[in-house]
Recover the amino acids of this structure.
């Protein structure tokens, strides 16, 4: 079976519709969304007039078979992640911004730093609240882990760049403990990468790559950002990864946003 995987939509209804149409044109059998469909970062995205959270979620409800949640979405509905190395105090959501920063020792991500509020309805909030932080599915006899980020911080609520080596090891251990041959994550926005326990392979856009068992793959972004946007296909029979491009120019960050 061919699985179609999209990630990082960020309220971009134009690119979301384009990605869904590509999948329909190619007669996809199963669509997985690794989330980030909330989260409009003012300095780094440039489609303010067309950003539409509600339209994006409608498209996903109609077309996606599996959806997982992540930190932008949890933040805007004020729900704490279940999986995290940071121990949130019981009164966390009652604390002000400065208190949360100080208490977390500045390791957590605070979306109010650069994001415009997402105007979420009560119905949409309930939908988000019921979404899982990761999913393991068995397809054609193989077990695949789908999440937005790595174990244990599936929702990526922590700025843990300095411990990536440890994080990679923990993710591989989680895959082995759950008998997962493959794993797909989103979030990075950058050039897609294939990870094994010993090496990282940077995959060229437009190429086809066999995914060795016991590896995980970073899915490229759908929203118009400062990186190229594509959708990803994984063939469970051939173990082959393929990417199809969207037709959007990348966004160039204005000088004022970097100063």
């Amino acid at each position: 079976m061919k699985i179609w995987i999209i990630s990082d939509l960020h309220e971009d209804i134009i690119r979301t519709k384009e990605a869904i149409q590509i999948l329909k044109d190619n007669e996809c059998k199963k669509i997985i969304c690794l989330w980030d469909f909330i989260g409009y970062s003012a300095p780094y995205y440039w489609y303010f007039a067309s950003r539409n959270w509600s339209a994006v979620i409608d498209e996903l409800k109609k077309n996606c078979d599996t959806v997982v949640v992540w930190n932008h979405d949890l933040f805007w509905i004020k729900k704490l992640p279940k999986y995290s190395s940071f121990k949130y105090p019981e009164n966390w959501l009652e604390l002000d911004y400065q208190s949360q920063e100080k208490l977390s020792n500045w390791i957590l991500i605070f979306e109010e730093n650069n994001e415009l509020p997402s105007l979420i309805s009560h119905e949409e909030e309930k939908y988000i609240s019921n979404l899982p932080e990761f999913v393991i599915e068995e397809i054609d006899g193989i077990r695949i882990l789908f999440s937005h980020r790595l174990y244990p911080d599936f929702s990526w609520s922590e700025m843990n760049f300095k411990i990536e080596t440890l994080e990679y090891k923990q993710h591989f251990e989680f895959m082995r403990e759950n008998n997962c041959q493959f794993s797909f994550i989103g979030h990075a926005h950058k050039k897609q990468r294939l990870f094994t326990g010993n090496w990282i392979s940077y995959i060229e856009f437009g190429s086809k790559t066999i995914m060795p068992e016991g590896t995980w793959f970073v899915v490229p972004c759908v929203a118009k950002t400062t990186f190229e946007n594509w959708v990803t296909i994984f063939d469970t029979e051939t173990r082959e990864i393929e990417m199809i491009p969207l037709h959007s120019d990348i966004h160039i960050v204005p000088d004022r946003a970097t100063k």
User: Anything to note?
Assistant: The mean pLDDT is 83. The helical segments are 13-25, 53-63, 71-77, 97-103, 122-129, 164-177.
